[in-house]
Fold these 3 entries.
Entry 1:
Amino acid sequence: MRIGVVTFPGSLDDRDAARAIRIAGGEAVELWHGDADLHGVDAVVLPGGFSYGDYLRCGAIARFAPVMGPLVDAATGGLPVLGICNGFQVLCESHLLPGALVRNDHLHFVCRDQRLRIESTGTAWTSSYAEGQEIVVPLKNGEGGYVADDATIDLLEAEGRVVARYLGVNPNGSRRDIAGITNARGNVVGLMPHPEHAVEALTGPTTDGLGFFTSILKGLVEA
Amino acid sequence: MSPLTPARKPDTVADAIAEPDTEQPYAELGLKPDEYVRIREILGRRPTSAELAMYSVMWSEHCSYKSSKVHLRQFGDKKPETDVLLVGIGENAGVVDIGAGWAVTFKVESHNHPSYVEPYQGAATGIGGIVRDILSMGARPVAVMDPLRFGAADHPDTRRVLPGVVAGIGGYGNCLGLPNIGGEVVFDASYQGNPLVNALCIGTMRHEDIHLASAKGVGNLVILYGAKTGGDGIGGVSVLASETFDEGGPTKRPAVQVGDPFMEKLLIECTLEVLHAGLVEGIQDLGGAGISCATSELASNGEGGMHVRLDAVPLRDATLTPEEILMSESQERMCAVVTPEKVEAFLAICRKWDVTADVIGEVTDSGRLVIEWHGEVIVDVPPRTVAHDGPVYDRPLARPEWQDALQAATADTLPRPTTAVELRDTVLTLVGSPNLASKTWITSQYDRYVLGNTVLAQPEDAGMVRVDEESGLGVAVSTDCNGRFAKLDPYNGAKLALAESYRNVAATGAAPLAVTNCLNFGSPEDPAVMWQFSQAVTGLADGCLELGIPVTGGNVSFYNQTGDVAILPTPVVGVLGVIDDVALRTPMAFTTEGDVVLVLGETRDELSGSEWAHVVHGHLGGLPPTVDLGAERALAELLVEASRASLVTAAHDVSDAGIAQALVEMAMRADVGARVDLPVGADPFVFLLSESTARAVVTVAPARLAELELRAAAHGVPVTRIGAVTAAGDDLQVQGAWGESLAWTLAELHATADATLPALFG
Amino acid sequence: MARVLVDVMLKPEILDPQGKAVESALGRLGLAGVTSVRQGKSFALEIDGEVDDARLAQIHELAGSLLSNPVIEDYVIREVTA
Amino acid sequence: MARVLVDVMLKPEILDPQGKAVESALGRLGLAGVTSVRQGKSFALEIDGEVDDARLAQIHELAGSLLSNPVIEDYVIREVTA
Ligand SMILES: Nc1ncnc2c1ncn2[C@@H]1O[C@H](COP(=O)(O)OP(=O)(O)O)[C@@H](O)[C@H]1O
Ligand SMILES: [Mg+2]
């Protein structure tokens, strides 16, 4: 199974996403922002980082990168896409996911081991978790507050499209403790915390994050 | 703007010959009259204003080390027998062999004065500068650390400086994608008008990837790449770091340098790609003194000559004069020497990364650094005289007359707790005091996970990163300095800083290998400060010789004082250790109920200069704890051996606030309690709060206790069994304090330790 | 040589933590009666040649997509000077 | 009920990484001839009662200290409306 990892100028967790894919048993394929070609990958991860320095707005400039053209089309057509942190911001800026991510309510960058509840196992990236499963993965962001109008959020809740919720502290002021969401089809997932940093006992707080990558691989095999 | 004539027509070498008597603003540029005279002697004429600009920044204290050179020599003279040093002092950073073909480079630098003027940008560009130093050795930067010192925690100006500095370090380092794996946060009134912002970076590379800053090969081209040159920070670091602040704050306010971490990230990836493609003969970062430094250092380290067309330098501000271009400290710039046939490939890679790059000159063997400005020669100098043959001062030193009185006023007479209740409250007071309280409010603003190789990070004794993902080979680094000890006795204070850093690295299971340092002191023009400096350098050099680990590089920061009041002498020492398999690292947390808790090392009645004397009595006097580097070495060998054999389940070094604070931190780390029985005959207060050196607290499974005691005996390390780890959530109990027992709940320890910084800065 | 000023503001219904922080700081520093503070961004563009209707339309397009995120922000082109 | 608008801009000689990023993005997106972009902040203050000279002096004081960082930024009070 070939899973692409896009590198934008300023992407930082791209190597880590690739490592997580390999540990989960997949083949990681480097995709370059300036290359408008997905090279036939079976799924794509938009990694964390500060694309274009996150100047202006996080993800605002990356959204216009050449690779995003084919990516948006493919995602609309059902290609599984996981946006982590900066990747989540890119997905929102590209309107593949509703809402937006704004400055943390406390105005500080925050890096912490975050408890989450998996709210939906119906997506391409969460199928190997149990409904309601609690996990701990790193969270690190300065603009991670999820916002959208009430109608949008109610719809997300109603359709079970809230993928993960913060437990304990809400680290950034996200509305309704939302840590991740998915599109109607469940192939595109945006997540503020970093599962790719919880795949090895030695370097992560847990290995709870591995499930996102085993989910997609399992799904692709079955598909 | 700079006091330099912004004349349309530049001051050429021809002018300098034709008009020998032109008045020159050398004093405004920080040059002393005799230094100006020497420049005239070197050139046999007056310098052009461009030459004057170059000499003034390169001969500044920061760039020339004119006051420290004569002392720093000891690091070379007393270098221990070692085969780990691949590149020594004198390059941008030293390089150490960690085996299996891997090399590590690490270095700490100061950005103290810029961070006082503009905390966010000052600290941010401090990170940027040290990262480029590491990059210029050919290494991939893999982690940063930030030893910080501020004035009184509750002083209003600390509220201005600290949050800005922390946000700047995080803002730059996080955006760069470098994990922050440790540092220091120390509060002391002496830093009020002069906070210390030191930044350390670690880089890794294969042996064959090591590069040096030299312009080899006549006819090779000099390429300047990265950010465009602007008017920011003209003479910034060099001038700012080379003068004292008066009560009113900085006297000179050069345009502050603003960092662009995104550009630096591109610079890193672009630089590593051109290096690995074999396109580079020599490379140099642009830091203090900008183009003046890069061109003169590259030239004098290579064929000896260089011809530069300054008008080829891409500018952000077209109105800059040539003098300003030479002095500008615009960030995120690098300089590379490339053979003509490889230039196109080099530029192509820069285009891929969207990095501006221009050929600005070529290497010659003329022995001269010649700089043209639109066809006219404005600089023609022997590059060595700019880069290396600056003035050298053997400044007068004098042991301060107050030193004896200070050492006589020991802490022995201070009232000590005499009941279990008093002792319990004293420990709690210390746990919540700013220097010991949890630093999470600060460190949670730093990304410690990025790159996915962080094995240990704050609050562990040392940061540890995996270097080789296959073999698990890794390195650990710690930085330490107790400025109060250094004030009481600068010679032993420096040794104590080394000992603590060395012990912290060993506690994680890494074998100490090499040393870097950042020597933060007051004005070298004050004989008392110069005495402190020479004592500290001698102590550190002697200590490194005794421990058998070489100094690989470092940095000196003088003029850290307000008016004529100097900061505590602060020789920050960084020790790097290597561990064959990071899976064997030793963390600090209590984890397993039933594990035996042991103290390694000997506890004496040593409380002068201690955290207790400082926090409870506001007292500083006496002599610091005795240094016993032999004992430190034995302890370190035992700790490393224990980790190799997976013998201990936890280890934590004992320093500030002694065994009490060590136990508290080990319990709070994973919220697991312990029951401790004070050794019979031991004074409860001394046992818990003395700061005797060469000690650590470890835990071991009962089944392996005998083995540990055997190995300890073999190394001659005293072992004291003091208790056992209890269950998750249990209290920390201490029994046998004057017949009574005391306990702290984890909840109250957290409430006390975690509340302090948020209350002050949140 | 034209100059275009674009202001970007958070939509009124979107929470503005920075504005809130400034608001309370102003209060602490003794500025009485501040009932609300909103923080926005401004962009000053220097453009060669003149900004005709086509150019202006293009700038509107970009102000509404790149310079601002319509989900949370509104923009106005405050000023166009030749 | 008065409204005060304060604009904060980086000093001209100070590097503006954000503006630089926007500048190149605008270029990539086909807006020709952009020679420079500077990004600034704006603050919209709602204040009870009227802004007399004393009040205005106070606001100037705060604009020059809290709202802007005089070491790297300049401010202007663009508008005061009752
Ligand atoms: N305290 C010190 N101990 C050992 N080496 C030092 C010390 N201070 C400076 N050096 C060495 O002197 C050389 C020049 O220092 P520095 O000017 O800080 O380097 P750079 O110009 O790359 O920042 C470097 O090799 C540095 O390691
Ligand atoms: Mg250097």
Entry 2:
Amino acid sequence: MDRKIYLDNAATTPVKPEVVEAMLPYFTERFGNPSSVYEFAAQNKSAVTAARETIAHALGAEPAEIYFTAGGTESDNWAIKETAEAYSQKGNHIITTKIEHHAVLHTCEYLEKHGYEVTYVNVDENGVVKLDELKKAIRPTTILISVMFANNEIGTIQPIKEIGEIAKENGILFHTDAVQAFGHVKIDVNEYHIDLLSASGHKINGPKGIGFLYIRKGLKLRSYIHGGAQERSRRAGTENVPAIVGFGKAVELAVATMDERMKKELELRDYLISHILAEVPYVRLNGHQKERLSNNANFSFQFIEGESLLIMLDMENICASSGSACTSGSLDPSHVLLAIGLPHEIAHGSLRLTLSDDITMDEIKYVIVKIKEIVEKLRSMSPLYEDFIKRQ
Amino acid sequence: MDRKIYLDNAATTPVKPEVVEAMLPYFTERFGNPSSVYEFAAQNKSAVTAARETIAHALGAEPAEIYFTAGGTESDNWAIKETAEAYSQKGNHIITTKIEHHAVLHTCEYLEKHGYEVTYVNVDENGVVKLDELKKAIRPTTILISVMFANNEIGTIQPIKEIGEIAKENGILFHTDAVQAFGHVKIDVNEYHIDLLSASGHKINGPKGIGFLYIRKGLKLRSYIHGGAQERSRRAGTENVPAIVGFGKAVELAVATMDERMKKELELRDYLISHILAEVPYVRLNGHQKERLSNNANFSFQFIEGESLLIMLDMENICASSGSACTSGSLDPSHVLLAIGLPHEIAHGSLRLTLSDDITMDEIKYVIVKIKEIVEKLRSMSPLYEDFIKRQ
Amino acid sequence: MYTEKVMDHFKNPRNVGEIENASGVGTVGNAKCGDIMRIYLDIDENEIIQDVKFKTFGCGAAVATSSMATELVKGKTVQEALAVTNKAVMEALDGLPPVKVHCSLLAEEAIHAALWDYAEKNGIKIDGLEKPKNDISEHEEEEEY
Amino acid sequence: MYTEKVMDHFKNPRNVGEIENASGVGTVGNAKCGDIMRIYLDIDENEIIQDVKFKTFGCGAAVATSSMATELVKGKTVQEALAVTNKAVMEALDGLPPVKVHCSLLAEEAIHAALWDYAEKNGIKIDGLEKPKNDISEHEEEEEY
Ligand SMILES: Cc1ncc(COP(=O)(O)O)c(C=O)c1O
Ligand SMILES: Cc1ncc(COP(=O)(O)O)c(C=O)c1O
């Protein structure tokens, strides 16, 4: 294959040409600070307003409930730390899960060092949060439940509506890290009883360095980034107008194409999964079979190690990842794969392929062939495989 | 004038075409996450490294001391809050000034609500921090001195070297908000004994939504934004590669053109200042006459109000601001103008003109004519002026 | 930020100026807050406002509301002028940004202050008119985060 | 991330495989940490390493360091092989990223383990060779922020 086959859309996505187009005038021409008095810059305010409306609409939210941030990580930090701070009178207990993104986990760990208590609820072997455990974890002092909408590694979609209802019944705020789900799955903050929701531009063919936090009207959360009066005095810093405009455009496109895109991705994904499972021995699919993102496939190949696999795939022009992009430079196996019960050595042999509707069936077939070849080659070099075969 | 005369470069600047050029490939082509294993994305790491080196070089710092953030505001929040946290064993006292940007002031106010004590040192009538007061404010529990390099409203450049020396002699960390100075003034973190320095891309013809915090090697500061292991585990969030590349390019250009640019701006600025002071009655120049940013002129016109002045200038195609852009929608007069001793009603009549080397002398002459006309018109409508004249 | 009507009244303010020996003059607001309005009324023996002028130190909205308020009371009787509320001024301007609503209140107060001055000078009492505050200190704080 | 030399040894690893009835076999590392290396040595009666093979479960650097280590000891005497340090392996590869330095240590250990096995099988003692740990648990924590 001449063309690069990019199968790491959960890590980041290319910015769509229409999105770049939409952003371009705001760099050099319409560069003005939207809080300015002069008309030429004040007009930018309406561009920001339009993006905010597009996003709010995609969530069934009010525009005034959308606050732009610098990305999913900042949104997660804000949601969790400032809920903790604003509701510390009520309690100091937070419930989350073992499979959250580090943006949530490390934020919770930070809070644990500052007098808060955090329960990390387990997930089942498919990566679905255990609702009974979650319910049992609730205390009178619980102020927040934070459960991601869909997992970035194994693609499992959580029973968000049920969790929202549990939170609501118990008068607890509910935050969801929807960085992987927003623009890929239909979300309605009211139907799902979501109080806080994080999302990021670059996961849906929008720009990097822009995200938002949905904050339900009436919540007492204050600023996390203090300074100027931007974002209704709740998020300081000169508005990143080009990125906001680009994010708005990306959301518009994502919403418009969602059904068609999901359909195509599902077809590719299911073909990929069924063929890998059928044609490669000693492999397992990670994540839920049905309740998973339409573009996510995650496998563990026994006896081999992920990074080697990735480099060999790269040599065949296939871009993929092992666990999440953030940790792929590290030696520890993914906390998500451990949480669904994989032993370390199997977790090490994991491969995440995250598709887009830009991928063709021919490419998927090529990928399957290459994976088979490479897995075979790596196994032939593996002392673990040698031992296994000799034990037969 | 047909052309818009943009005199609000302290609020934000247009992105230079070369900078947009440098960024463009990173949106659609080289979009990959730099932490990825595959080469196509790993290459982006070197683009980020190159930008980091350019910036470090501009400051006399090490590349490993530069941490990219989402802007000046985040850098200020990080520097101050995490110094407070990391050094809370040593003490709980911070010294800053009355004329800091809200990103510093509101962060300090936040800390005051959390058990820290903050001294806000006064400035003199030129906006220069009172060094004797600053020295007297030092306590055994003082952990940080935060003084901006140059003021965003009145342009006064602080005696940063002296302050750095005071901090060093007393074993106190020194942070400077250099958002207005970086790229406009020569800065050497070692010569000036700066431990922490904030800067922002969009003030030097770079993109919005990107900034950095310089953290001197060895400082114990931890992350402010928790999550993935980006920026040597100190600032989480998928790297905003296009913006980082653009920031690097903007710094490269700013450094290369600094001397020439300052020379041109100084000529324009001094012409503007001398003519306004000579030709308009009842006006004062705010900020230091000499120790000021080469592109900043700030006047107070008695008997008139700033917003009206701005709208009328806008009608003549002149973009300017009154106080800082962030607060120009608000009714309170600028805290900076009050701090240099202006009475409220005079502070209300302030006008900030911040030039660029893109401005011509003809445009400056046109601006002077228009200011004269408009000030006259507004005074003819002003009850304060009426009273003043009748009292003569 | 501003509607076209506001911009029109700012760019071409109606009735700017002073009236010598005015029947009533009212000045409200204070320089500290950045808004001062002064209204001059020329009222004839039939209690009809024959002429009105204003001077304003303030923002775009302050100028526009002054201008509009003078338009709304010109040619009216004292009682009719008294009935011109800040809401009427705002509506006539097609609205104001929330942070600028106080300007319309100031315009209403300025009219009242001028009417009060007229009443005092003539030793009469105008039904429904209360002594105006010098300053409308409706300096409501924005919610702080 | 990796130097060209590392990539070359990863793409075309030298001496992959097994040696039947090897003079010595050493396996180090553990699957939990994601690296296992096994080295087979064929040593002749003059204590010269006639052949060497490896199998590795691990990352790109683990494969490349195994490959390079086998190249460095091939044809050498036992004493010479013992002197091949992880530093020598790294240098021969034009360096490794800091997080991957442990792979070169593992390669050194694997050689030592195979030599130890050879010594044990032959009831000899090799000067300067210590019993290798099964696992080089040099799992140093990165500084946490
Ligand atoms: C589930 C999840 N949460 C949070 C993040 C962080 O988003 P960002 O990198 O935009 O800050 C990511 C992606 O990296 C993610 O997948
Ligand atoms: C002195 C100063 N500090 C901080 C900031 C905040 O920078 P940013 O808007 O990029 O967050 C600004 C500009 O708004 C500034 O002028």
Entry 3:
Amino acid sequence: MSTSVPVQGWGREAMARRLAQDIPDGSYINLGIGIPELVARFVPDGRTFIYHTENGLLGMGPSPAEGQEDPELINAGKRHVTANPGAAYFHHADSFAMIRGGHLDLSILGAMQISQSGDLANWSTGQPGAIPAVGGAMDLVAGVKKVFVLTQHTTKTGEPKLVESCTYPLTGQGVVDRIYTDLAVIDITPAGFQAIEIAPDVPFEHVQAMTNAKLTPPSASLSE
Amino acid sequence: MSTSVPVQGWGREAMARRLAQDIPDGSYINLGIGIPELVARFVPDGRTFIYHTENGLLGMGPSPAEGQEDPELINAGKRHVTANPGAAYFHHADSFAMIRGGHLDLSILGAMQISQSGDLANWSTGQPGAIPAVGGAMDLVAGVKKVFVLTQHTTKTGEPKLVESCTYPLTGQGVVDRIYTDLAVIDITPAGFQAIEIAPDVPFEHVQAMTNAKLTPPSASLSE
Amino acid sequence: MINKRMPNAAEAVADIPDGASIMVGGFGEAGSPIELLHALIDQGAEDLTIISNNCGSGEVGLAALLKARRVTKVICSFPKTANSTVFPELYREGFTQLELVPQGTLAERIRAGGAGVKAFYTPTAVGTPLAEDKESRDFDGRTYLLEHGLTADFALIKGLHADEHGNVIYNKTARNFAPVMAMAAHTSIVQTAKVSAPGELDPEVVVTPGIFIDRVVEVPHPAHESELIAAGVSYP
Amino acid sequence: MINKRMPNAAEAVADIPDGASIMVGGFGEAGSPIELLHALIDQGAEDLTIISNNCGSGEVGLAALLKARRVTKVICSFPKTANSTVFPELYREGFTQLELVPQGTLAERIRAGGAGVKAFYTPTAVGTPLAEDKESRDFDGRTYLLEHGLTADFALIKGLHADEHGNVIYNKTARNFAPVMAMAAHTSIVQTAKVSAPGELDPEVVVTPGIFIDRVVEVPHPAHESELIAAGVSYP
């Protein structure tokens, strides 16, 4: 393994574009706040995705033109949005009935840590004095059919986010299906982290080094 | 006690009118099928009642004019009705949220038997071979703030409906607040049946004789 | 491209297999999806479990499905009707089983099934024969029954107007069980008098958001049970 | 005669006592009943428990109520906001307690409280710190938590248009928690930009039926948090 050459993986937009390729036409999707929101910019040709925002809108559209913002039409990140043709408004209990009842196809979330068994930690560092806030993350991971994590492979200070077991408080146990990072696309399997694609020009060994658990390379069998 | 003179109590309409006097202005009411439906004809001057029908309408109005019937605008008894100004339609889970959640002020029901502790039996004779059918009666008695029973004092064959304990399968335990019959108005109290009014020209002794449990006369204290 | 429109009722119900559980909308005749039910009779599936408030009337719609001996179990609050002998005969014969559920508990169980609520505690039916064999528990001095969420393989419902995304609005008291059944079934099929392109329904007035609907069939002039019965129809 | 109209926000909240529990609608600024909250600040009640998804922003509306030291407990899913230090300071000081509830569990607990469902089993939060001290139970091989219905003494919500019977419609994502809070509070108070005589709202599009609403206040030009904050307002 060489770390003397700077390794450059996918950028944020490339990560979002890569994830979007894996979403089937007609999917109902909840986009988490932050990088996940970028996915909506990269819908593959010929596909239609319908976006759910947990504060009561199905069929969320892009940001409004400047001056067209409505303070009562916002998404879960409290940003101004629009409603597409075919949209519907509903109250919060109905919105989370969609989530908890398994009606959404895909939840795309950010992460602080993901364990090799699919545990997700993305709401609290557990630090004393921190203000706890959880929002809808625990509902999403418990209810949505598939959970994709879209995140940098490591923290800003270089700490691996993919770990044997999470040290931060959990959002859910065994809930993550797939992880998209700047370095790789990685499935959670019964055998742990299984890379299915590595970013161009990134050595597998580098991805493994940035991962705090065993990572199976793309060529190797899932069942080993 | 004399049974040699035929005793005539209130007629069906007089029973309904008597009950209507006891309903406060602005009450939300569910009317059971049969005699209870008559109450809507006798709203006292100056009062407004709002009728709920469990199949999804609040603000139910009277029967439509002939030729104006809509097969998709019916009440719980499957009769054609209308919607008053200020009405709202909603689905069945919301409708029974109103009932179970204690939002309705009054449920007026028919009865097969009422016990002195307020148990109600009004859905089944429990006969072998009978087709069981319960509808919303159990939800109404469990959820509505007050339950009034409007019924003949005895069955068509002269059997008392007010009894020490019900022999028919129960609709609910200790749920009835007051009973309006052709002979009397009777409260359920911790001490049992307490008559609060007797129909004109009906001897109290006759009402007691038609009641299969101790009945306290109107003048006597509740706390005796 | 999302378009849930099906060419006709027959294709909408074509894949319902023997043994399926099916929620059927309607309270009395209001909201009964007659054309979908008749297509299901034509299709031939049997050994069905039907979840519905009533068992139909006359010999059309749901009653006709029962009469055709396709239904071996009903989960229902009020199977009796004034003008049908279909269910009583099948029940007494032992061909069709009955799970009797109070109406509000039925609505709430269906909503819970659709909302991912596994079970809940309700005060309804405590102390009655319908509480037998059910878990109960006291909270704050009152007794409640544990009731379980209810789901089904299919829902057949009737709306007034839908769009191709599956958003639906209803007509008056024909709404009844349809919105919660749409939530609780794996495959929800709605017939509506009109089907439009997305954008024709105001997002503020949509009752059932399209995420709960899988298939939409336009039936421009739906029949009403009472009219068919008055006309002496016995289906098929 | 049914007329739930109140002359103004001050009279609508006049009887809220010290120690009351109050559900407050809104998600972010959408649906926040600013004028009712400001009337409550003027009114002076303290030792309040607030049930709301957020804790407000800036120093207006809900954040201003907290800043005035009237709130000793919040039941909330996301008390942090980018532009308010009010809650964090009161929380660290120990003046205001926090019961943190996942957003969907909060919505469902409120709906259950309004629907007479005493408690329910949900898969949300299993295996997390928010499951500590909660009963859990396995059904069909999966673990669920027991969560309890939530009610309150009062609800303060914001709609778009109401009638004198208390029927309410909302505006876009300002609907959020308001319909379930209206169900779950003993006394539900709504402010709307317009109040009409009964009959002006189409019964098919009413979102909150009047039975859930006790008081209606017309606030023709409601303020938005973001506008007040941009204008440098700190209430009172």
